[in-house]
Input
Amino acid sequence: MMIAALVMTLSANAQFEQGKMYVGASMTGFDASYSGATEFHLGIDAKAGYFFMDNLLALGQVGYKHNGYEGASDEFNIGVGGRYYIVQNGIFLGAGVKYVHSSGYNDFMPNVEVGYAFFINRTVTIEPALYYDQSIKNHSDYSTVGLRIGIGINLFKDTPKYFR
Output
């Protein structure tokens, strides 16, 4: 068990090195989130990033959310943010801001997240995360807390040190 834990720690360390690129997608909805103005929604986000330092990832994202209740309009968003990966255990902390556009409103939403990068192989991760989006326009109706399930791919500039 101790050897397996050591190998997992070393392989996780190799994943978050400076100079790597990251692409990912995540899904929200199925009533895994809550805000005052929504009943049912399904959202998808695409992300791309770059590790500018070991364990620090700069991210850009675009997203779409379908609101399935009567009278609601769909939303589009674009944003920037970052993540810090705690190498020893795979937990990451994230923060950012996004611009949300819908036919009913426009909003800037600062957000935070905490998640776990579970490696299924040396490049692909499953990333469950808890998140909070704070609405600047109307806190009670548009701020959201929820669960996001994502998949990430770490693209290597060259072979990581651990695998040489």
The longest helix spans residues 2-15.
